[in-house]
Amino acid sequence: MKIKKILILGSTGSIGKSTLKVIKNYRNNIEIVCMSSNKNFKKLYRQAELFNVQNLIINDSKSFLKAKSFLKKKKINLFPSISEYLKKNKKKIDLTIIGISGFEGLDPTLKIIPFTKNLASANKESIICGWKFINAKLKKFKTKFIPIDSEHFSIWSLINNDKHLVSKIYLTASGGPFLNASKKKLNYVNVKNVINHPNWSMGKKISTDSATMMNKVFEVIEASKIFNLDMSKIKIIIHPKSIIHALVVFNNGLIKILMHETNMEIPIFNIIFEKNNTMFYDKTVLNFEKLNGTNFIKPNNKKFPYVNLLSDYKKKNTYFEVILVTINDELVNLFLSKKISFINMQKLLIKLIKGSVFKKYYNKQPKNINDINLMVNNVKKLLIKYDKIFQ
């Protein structure tokens, strides 16, 4: 078997760590050509030692200088950005994994596309806000795109070349920690309650988005872009057991579902070893107790008011996506810092997104990623003063 060359951007984050867990068992078949982190250079170096990686990227400038001193006597090539790495390494690699979170993932995603045969990404912000630019480059350089998130990976696996036959797609949501809580009880929940996800082990930010179901709003937008489908074909359905990740209804009468355990290693394994019949993921145990009573519930839009925002999503690739993602990011940070309550976070987001301050941008499109970054900064500046303006 030919050795597969892989680059991992964001190797110290959750997607990066899951990727390394998969690769750990198949080191004879995979070479990691480069890994990156924003600040955590010590952890990155430990990963590099374990996997014999010679090229490392540290994006944060202060951390890069510290890393340069720390790695002075090590046989490591250290770079301050993906751009600097690519100046010296132009040969196309087999697969790039994008595990970077936030808007910081968009620029390196665009820069790596010409140098990778396959691009697998879990970066919601870049897909939601910059898909137009990503897709143009994918087509130009004939790079194949594979989504990492379990729901989108499931859709990608199910539809294959039958996109023209898709009638409806259902993205499953767990319902988070408050599925069975009364609306009144939500007035009293705290950060600890919110991040206590019943099924997945996730970071505080994504756990909060799961509790509000904003993550599903984002996933619907992502799916419409990745698969170039009309929004009316994509629905959210609550599936508390989280073993089924997507259901696709075809207009030939067939309905396909994809299920796997709540473990991100599974989609990553299948991305790395796509169409390889000699590699086996041997950790799966079929649990019939989980399969029995696999119930589905329509979202309660009063308990999960963010779902209603999808009805306001009329035109793709405008500043609406950028503003929505940025407002949500900032308000979640305020909630996690205990500066705002869970309920007020949701009320304020809806008030802001529907307000005249931002509505004027919903018919305008960013022309490049600089426009996206400018809008992100403008929204952040405005939200610093949110308590004086909106309360």
Q: How is this structure best described in words?
A:
The protein has helices spanning 14-24, 41-51, 61-70, 82-88, 106-112, 124-140, 150-159, 191-194, 204-212, 214-226, 265-272, 288-291, 319-336, 342-354, 356-359, 369-384, 386-389, and strands at residues 4-9, 30-37, 55-58, 77-79, 93-98, 116-121, 144-147, 166-173, 234-238, 244-250, 255-259. With 391 residues, it is an alpha/beta fold. The strands form two sheets. Strands 4-3-2-1-5-6-7 form a seven-stranded parallel sheet, sandwiched between helices. A four-stranded mixed sheet has the order 9-8-10-11, with helices on one face. Helix 6 (124-140) packs parallel to helix 10 and helix 13 (319-336) packs antiparallel against helix 14 (342-354). The radius of gyration is 21 Å and the shape is globular. The mean pLDDT is 91.
Q: Uncertain spans, ≥5 residues at pLDDT below 50?
A: none
Mean pLDDT: 91
Based on CA inertia axes, which overall geometry fits?
globular
Helix content: 40-55%
Order of helices and strands: EHEHEHEHEHEHEHEHHHEEEHHHHHHH
Query: What is the multimeric organization of the chains shown?
Result: single chain
Q: What is the topology, as strand order, of the major beta sheet?
A: 4-3-2-1-5-6-7
Number of strands: 11
Put simply, the count of helices is 17
Domains (count): 3
